[in-house]
Amino acid sequence: DTEVTQTPKHLVMGMTNKKSLKCEQHMGHRAMYWYKQKAKKPPELMFVYSYEKLSINESVPSRFSPECPNSSLLNLHLHALQPEDSALYLCASSQGGVWSNSPLHFGNGTRLTVT
Amino acid sequence: EDQVTQSPEALRLQEGESSSLNCSYTVSGLRGLFWYRQDPGKGPEFLFTLYSAGEEKEKERLKATLTKKESFLHITAPKPEDSATYLCAVQAAVDYTGANSKLTFGKGITLSVRP
Q: What is the C-alpha end-to-end distance of chain B, expressed in Å?
């Protein structure tokens, strides 16, 4: 079991749907991340929140909208996605802020399929 | 631009046959090199952080080493349960924006250990 919990584990949505992915950690980590991973590829960074503020947005399309309600929770709101957005979406956290070199701890991801 | 190259892409070992996985990197000032293990359909699991050349870390059958240009993950007497994809990532020196604090991942090495 990981200490970063993601829900749901699987999600199937149509291109007109609105859905949200959720991530939670109780390790007291101050940075939280969203990554996207396609099959047989390394994770690709999407967003970073450091001390609950958006620090990095890797030019992600606006159909992906992150939210950090508090230091333990991270959401990713999805709207009008395309089939090519189907992937494993990973949440991670790290002890320090975005500028620290502490390791990332990943959740087990949400497998998203867009039909 | 930071680069990480992992080799070989895939490695098949017999149980008990020791070997090494390579991670070559170029980075403008290394702040940390990270090894992760990823099982199919799961998130990456943190293994080691190495911060400076000459550093070594061990965990069970795994030993990670670091030079100024590459890192090795040595696997001693592997077992079938060591089968996974092993990811290497580097973090560069941080500028005032924090933007280059993000990890650069290699493409991973898929290890299969036959009983």
A: 41
